[in-house]
Amino acid sequence: MFSTRVVPVGSSTLQFREEQLTGLRCRISPDRTRRNLDDPVTYTDNNTGCPFCPPEVFDATPVFPGGNRILVGESVTFPNLYPFATYHTVTVITSEHAVNRFSRRQLLDAFHAQYQSLEGQEGYASINWNYLPSAGASLSHPHLQGMVDPVPTRIAELYMNATEEYYTRQGHLYQEDWILHERDTPRFLFGEEICWMAHAVPLGEREVRAHLPVTTLGEFEPYIDLFVDGVMKIIGMYRQLGTHAFNLAVFFGNHTRKLGFKATCSMISRINPNTQSLSDSAFMERLHLEPVILTLPEELGTWYRNQK
Question: Which domain holds residue 47?
């Protein structure tokens, strides 16, 4: 499933990992945790000028062609005013500007609203979340973003092509083989219908992958409740480990191309917001597309199980 090359560096070791399916690579350097980059996070209630706070959210945001927004619980969903996808929606998760702890109801409503906003659109859908500015959120007020394009994004396309080739060659699904392989490793976290695990070749710090038993967005609705339960567990784990910011993306296939691919969620923790403009992404991540990771996936899985 993946290869590891261990190289001695000074008094420690550096791991070079490569995913056999896609050729994606990362470097894991546990010693770099000694830099202690994460400051304690501070939440601010300063919502001056925030277009996502009520009542401004109903004046400053656009509406769908029928003149409406999607309202589910606290959440408010509307077209993205500055889209970077063919079809792009935003779901404001809560009426509160700064949220330290999300309730299950808040996340359920928000993901159901995202589903409603994307359902029926032709193309390849994804549901995404940048939480806090250090994870790329342009507005601190928590919100999801949904996108649909006629072609999948590069990482989704890579997995769709590779899993299709794997299915043609092996005669069974790669994700099913991956789950069977990972269940007996230290990287497995939890789940039956939706399996969550620390990804063996992480593309971000503490990356966790969830493999869903569906392919398309249209099949997602019955699993939203179970999916949200898993997301809340991972957010809780990140909080216990001291990081609050994170990114989330769920990639869906298309009904015209279902061979070999199952929808996948990826979550990575990010550095907490800070006043020094420190970032956890640099030239290796952005220019070399080969991220430098601090946490061994096996240690993350062991840590999670030991909390029970």
Answer: 1-308
